[in-house]
Amino acid sequence: MKVAVISFSGNVGKTTIARHLLAPRLPGAALISIESINAGEDQDHVIRGRQFAELQEFLQVVDDVVVDIGASNVEELLGLMRRYQGSHEDFDHYVIPTVPAAKQQQDTIATLAELARIGIPATKVRVVFNMVEDGSELERVFEPVLSFAQMTRSAELSLACRLGSNEIYGRIKGSGADLVALAADTTDYKALIQRAADSTERLALAQRLATRRLALGVVPELDACFAALGLGTTGPKAPATDSPERTTP
Hints:
Elements: E1 2-5, H1 14-22, E2 30-34, E3 45-46, H2 52-61, E4 65-69, H3 71-83, E5 93-98, H4 102-118, E6 125-132, H5 138-141, H6 143-152, E7 162-164, H7 168-172, H8 179-184, H9 189-195, H10 199-229
Parallel strand pairs: 1-4, 1-5, 2-3, 2-4, 5-6, 6-7
Helix pairs in contact: 4-6, 9-10
Protein name: StbB family protein
């Protein structure tokens, strides 16, 4: 499966979605970053925005890949897609993260409109509602995006595709850490803290304990969001609970 994570907006969590939501749940998937600014953290490949021909060639020879498209490259890359007729078909799905802020929602709408203009069908487009505060009414908070997608039929949406804010992403940024592995860690940190020789060692162990606790909370949320995306199907999956859902017909 080949998935593009894309948005005209920065600060919506594209890298978090690519690295921690999608790539770990697509076995064997390569992770590519297309970014001319701040490139090269720890992605498998880094391809500059202008190297579109190289990206197309790469997509032909891999089965599973997640492509994280930096905001500074989106306009250029979409323009190249229009030039290379049919190149948008190389991706099975386009995932657009959005957040509650008004500007980012307008950028999400612009991204949806541009994908539709290129000819990408709604069945290939998913939205992840990211950085959602506990107790938020998503239908109210994300009303601009939901209304636009429903009116234009530019995406298939499920409100179960949601992720909350969590400091763990900042804690592990640039470390290459795997959240599932962190959650599965069985180390008895409390015992180690009691035996630690000094306060510096105790603090380091306490930080690792806190990170594991955060991972234990966030991994089920990531699993549920990924399941709700319904990648590989004609539409996002309905939530397993009574959570509200809104899907464009």
